[in-house]
Amino acid sequence: MQILAQAPTTTTTLPFATFSVLRRPQLVVTMPGSKTETLALAGALGGGVAALLLLWIQKRRKDDVGAIPAIKLPAGSWFSIQALFKLGKDNIGYGSGRLILQAVDPSIGIGSLVIFGQKTILLRDPELVQEVLQKNHQAGGDYGKSFKGSPLDGLTDKTFGRGLFFAEDQDPQWAVAHKILTRPFSHRGILNMVPLMCEQVDCLVAALECKMRAGESVHMYDYLVKMALETIAVCSMGTPFDSFNSTEPHPFPVAFQAVLDAMFALFNVPTQLWSCCVLTMWRMQKAVGVMNGLIDEIIRKRFDKETSSSGKAPDLLDLMLAEGSKLSRENVRSQILTFLFAGHDSTAAAMSSLIVFLVANPRVEARLVAEIQQVVGSGEVQAHHVSELTYLDWCLKETLRLLPPAGSYQRMAFQDTILGGKWKLKQYTPIWVDVFALHMDPETWGADAACFVPERWEKGPPHAYSYMPFASGPRSCIGKEFSIMEQKIVAVKLLQRFTMHSPTAWTARTGSVLIKASESLPHTILGIDAEFSPQQFFVGASIPVLLQLRDPPC
Ligand code: HEM
């Protein structure tokens, strides 16, 4: 027997319509097996299921509001790192940028992907980048720099330590060191370093002249690395590594590269299995021991006043070892390692890419040479010339746009928050500011985004946050002005002295990949064949060049 609630009706018929008016519900008793009962039962069940379904759909919709869309991996890749490697044949550093440009809707500008086992947010939209960089931890905002949960976190303490580059925002030593080191990297501080920079570039020019006289082609990247390492070593700690004078490489750059090689090898393995990579770990620790031993000795000598700054002003070591600096000896070592790390390969990669673009674009090179002739002539380049070299500035910016040495950098949501007034972020979600995607986005830069066009800089960037090679905010590059000054001095001195051509046929060196001009590199048009090293932390293109003396010299 079933008891069902039923709402009987009173029916009224008018000439044009029929109304059914509900009366107060009554209890209707039905006997099992009757037709009425089966129909009522089915109706009640159907209604229940429909109501549940409606509730579930409503809840799903509510949860979905603000959920960041997951990035669809390209066909044939079954996990994100594999996709990033596949899209970054030249260097994995550009893999995420290419993925975003392919897979993230420009009208949304944000996507999520599981990288190294962490749900990571990738940004393509300059407005969202602006919000993340502006609402930083130091300004009381929700975003900051931290490697929590990333494989880099564990490796940093074992290798370069927590100098400025690798320190977390919450690390009190970052603020102390940042305050001390801001002064030497201010505009005035850099002007003091110009004579030291010029000396190192002269050593580069002399070494290149030797190669030219021997009729040999030169891999410019290798020579620029030596020059940039010497420059930062002399400017920061008054101690050269003699890269140009000695036939044997100095143990520091050798150990440095061994550490990087080990780090790259470990990135290919899940962190849980690192303890099984005994040989790689041993090699890494051995190389770290060599680096630390050399830097500790340099610090000791300065502490004991056996050495002094190379320039007129106190250098980084003087400032960090000064009484009351509050930095431990170990932290001073990490800072020096950080400056050597962040300060040489980055600039060398940028300069090497500039040479590739100049050799590929003779029209641009001719305009640049004419500007140098007009502003500097054939004499020594001075700091005041540098601000007058507008076209050179455009060429450097365009190079850093197309081949940014730092392809991306990470920030993190320090608490649950909403990005762009819409996107829900959970505490400790990593956010990648994808420089490559920002710089190459045709939505922002136009249809010729992939082409080398220095003239586009006459108007400035299309959005204040669409060009971010050095980042922005408190964790932006402290060495930006240093690097730009160094790059400009190198460009002037090289173009005053030499013309450069690429040999007709050449092959990539072991460990590097050759990208043919005819082969389309997604999102970047190089114009000529160029080589990339997947093992480089900072990305840059390289070519061998044949040098000739410029006639007449400018
Ligand atoms: C073309 C050359 C360079 C590029 C593209 C570059 C790029 C960057 C970027 C993107 C960051 C921010 C990284 C992040 O937020 O995780 C950074 C930070 C940093 N850079 Fe550079 N950099 C260059 C040259 C240099 C030079 C020459 C030096 C040293 C003289 C230097 C020292 C540093 C340091 C110490 C930091 C960490 C700053 C902090 O967090 O307090 N960089 N760089």
UniProtKB/TrEMBL annotation:
Binding site for heme: 477
GO-annotated molecular function: heme binding; iron ion binding; monooxygenase activity; oxidoreductase activity, acting on paired donors, with incorporation or reduction of molecular oxygen
Superkingdom of source: Eukaryota
TM region(s), chain numbering: 39-57
Cofactor(s) demanded: heme
UniProt keyword terms in alphabetical order: Heme, Iron, Membrane, Metal-binding, Monooxygenase, Oxidoreductase, Transmembrane, Transmembrane helix
Entry-linked Pfam families: p450 (PF00067)
Homology family: Belongs to the cytochrome P450 family.
Protein name: Cytochrome P450
Organism: Polarella glacialis
